[in-house]
Design goal:
Elements lengths: L2 E4 L5 H12 L3 E4 L11 E6 L7 H9 L7 E13 L2 E3 L6 H11 L3 E11 L11 H23 L8 H12 L1 H16 L2 E3 L8 H5 L5 E4 L4 E4 L8 H5 L5 E3 L1 H11 L3 H5 L7 H29 L3 H9 L16 H4 L4
Parallel strand pairs: 1-2, 1-3, 3-4, 4-6
Antiparallel strand pairs: 4-5, 7-10, 8-9
Helix pairs in contact: 1-4, 2-3, 6-11
The protein binds flavin mononucleotide and iron/sulfur cluster (2 copies).
The site of one iron/sulfur cluster (SF4) has 13 residues, from helix 8.
């Protein structure tokens, strides 16, 4: 059976997975679904985060059974934008090559890798895209992906296409940014999220998070974002009250906290070799994450005060921005219930 696994925050990668599965007459499954012994094509479709693959996807690829020559196709969706008649592509960086390399190492036969543009969904940082532009990007990508998947079906192998190699070169140059994103950025992003004052405590965000990162707590019940969060934007996109916000005020505080180097304070005046510098760097990351977590817990406690809560709700740009999800994708699709 041909199976296309997907990880998707706001439906873009789910949609691309359905296109791939459609041509191969296979099925789509979220990557959290139980793995069954299978043969046929293994597809893996996921979004680009920080110019590489999300950690959840890397972990899933590492946990797959031995491939024993099973054919595999890896597709990363990236954030494209449309300005007037211009389609501006996103940048997948190392996203699909990293996952393809893991699969090849596990014994899968890679038949296709590709990065495809879908509407950018990072609504913590940018306003959500309007439906008309989004649909224009999606249908353009559908056509391109259709020709890619039909070539694969006909027996072609599309791995080192010129565009992909260029993207890999840029991705390798951006590797320090990707590492920073994986080790600190995504955790910082998780701790920007909060429920604004229109939250009803319904718990839909917690139930639909693909990685179970939201804990409902307190009286009245409110969501609390833990470090498991992948920053996929699903909670923000599908909250029925548009209550999920990312605080840009808190992002400013994180920026200040991120600049504090524990190792420089502790090792001041001590000559440092490479091993000590590396240990210092790791200690710095751990320290920054502890500070983010402590500051976030304190902030959540302060927001029990209605005036403070309102000030943070009205004081962040996301409060005025449109949300985005793939126009034809609902939460049930993303849970694999369709
Ligand atoms: C936290 C985060 C980081 C992102 N980083 C990138 C990036 O480095 N390059 C890019 O082209 N798009 C980036 N995007 C955009 C998404 O990869 C893109 O919109 C994708 O299609 C979303 O797919 P999904 O709806 O399946 O989650 C990012 C989005 C988020 C939320
Ligand atoms: S943030 Fe939205 S989805 Fe989550 S509990 Fe509040 S109202 Fe419900
Ligand atoms: S908490 Fe929200 S942004 Fe984070 S992984 Fe879950 S649904 Fe995605």
């Amino acid at each position: 059976m041909n199976t296309v696994y997907f990880f998707s925050g706001t439906g873009n990668s789910y949609r691309a997975a359905t296109w791939l599965a459609g041509v191969f007459q296979g099925r789509v499954k979220p990557i959290g679904a139980a793995l069954e012994p299978e043969d046929g094509l293994l597809g893996l479709v996921f979004p680009t985060h920080g110019f590489t693959a999300p950690w959840t996807v890397v972990r899933f690829a590492l946990g797959l059974p031995e491939g024993k020559g099973r054919p595999a196709c890896v597709v990363a969706t990236r954030g494209g934008v449309k300005v007037g008649p211009l389609f501006i592509p996103g940048m997948a960086g190392t996203a699909y090559f990293l996952v393809a390399m893991i699969l090849a190492w596990k014994g899968y036969r890679i038949i296709g890798v590709q990065g495809v543009d879908m509407p950018i969904n990072w609504t913590a940082m940018l306003p959500g895209m309007g439906e008309k532009s989004a649909r224009a990007i999606i249908s353009r990508t559908h056509r391109r992906m259709d020709s890619f998947t039909r070539s694969l079906k006909a027996g072609d192998r599309i791995v080192f296409a010129r565009g992909s190699l260029m993207e890999l070169v840029v991705g390798l140059a951006l590797l320090p940014v990707s590492l920073l994103y994986l080790t600190t950025g995504r955790f910082g992003l998780a701790k920007l999220m909060f429920a604004g004052d229109v939250c009803t405590g319904c718990g839909l965000c917690a139930r639909s998070c693909p990685v179970g990162a939201i804990r409902m707590q307190g009286e009245p019940l409110r969501p609390f974002w833990t470090y498991t969060c992948e920053g996929c934007m699903r909670c923000m996109a599908y909250c029925p009250e548009m209550a999920v916000e990312a605080s840009h005020l808190f992002a400013g505080l994180e920026y200040k906290l991120g600049g504090i180097s524990l190792s420089s304070l502790l090792l001041c005046g001590i000559k440092r070799g490479r091993a000590v510098r590396l240990a210092g760097r790791l200690a710095d990351i751990g320290f920054v994450l502890l500070m983010y977590a402590a500051a976030y817990s304190l902030w959540q406690a302060l927001m029990k005060n209605a005036a403070i809560h309102r000030a943070f709700t009205n004081g962040t740009l996301t409060h005025y921005w449109r949300r985005y999800h793939e126009p034809d994708t609902g939460l049930d699709d993303l849970k694999g219930l369709s």
